[in-house]
Amino acid sequence: MTPSNIVSIISQEILGDALRLKARVLPRTMRSIMEILKTDVLNQNSRSRLADGGYYFLSHHIWMDTDTEEDFRTSLAVAKMIYRTGEQDHTVLQRLNGYSSDRSRLPISSIRSWNIMVLAAIQEPKESWGSTIYAFLGIFSDVYFAALKPNLQAASFPESTITDINHACISVKLWLMLAKLVSSDEQKRELSTFAVWNELWPPFESLIRAIDNETYLGGTALTMSSSLSSSVINIITHLRTLRVPVASLISTHLSIINRLRAINTDDSATGKLHRALQGLSDPAPDVAVDTLIEEVGKDIVAVEKLRALEMRRDALPERRAERPRKETRHLS
User: Fold this and answer.
1) What percentage of the chain reaches a pLDDT higher than 90?
2) Rounded CA gap, 300 and 283, in Å?
3) According to the model, what pLDDT value does residue 102 have?
4) What pLDDT does 332 receive?
5) Per-residue DSSP letters for 44-66?
């Protein structure tokens, strides 16, 4: 056995344990190992095992507030490793279908992990990854609805609600970008973008209706309406910037913003909604696709950094003792 073979075997073992969270390896070290193994001649079983570990990592790795950017870059590198493996072994990506009808056994089961997979595909438009992941829109929709459903069923909401809404907002933006990327002509672009909108917008409509019907109580309603307003403005602005067919539904967007204005008591959110309403009559801004991709990546990092900071704050003994309903921050 040559020295290079020994290094390759050791690297595979280290990376495999890191992906399965059995060993603590720095994110940048993981990326370096993946870069080394990318040029190694690994047998397909070895690559497939690493891809399965990659799915596990995307779903279960906890991002830290001190290293969020590194966690983000490493997660993207893992997603791209999965795609490259899937080019050689098509069963790797077909696992995103789950196992028969058991959606609980999906290899990636969080909105964040799917967002990373979609963003990785968008970052590499020369590859066929975009068309591959777009075919799983229906599967992702199940994950998306399952994550948001608990927020519609009680007067108070789970601790993860604002994070879920923010990641859902990012999902709508990413899948619309993906739909535009994979569409070869105007007619297909219209069909694919409306397919994304029809799949992913309804939960936001349900959240607006829940607030409108006074499902949530007191401070919970204020927090929800403020966070939801920011996310909806973000989505509508993104629609217009992308210049996708859904953006032409001006009357629908006007109605949505006016409904949110009617139920919002937060001055900051009301001001944002007023500006968004005025902005609908302005020409859509010209923003380069690369800039939009970069902005979405920053959104993911910001959401996870806020989540990690909240987790750290909640872990403090005095916070556990008080445990009031906290004012939760959200993306602007």
Assistant:
1) 42
2) 27
3) 53
4) 44
5) HHHHHHHHHHHHHHHHHPPPPTT
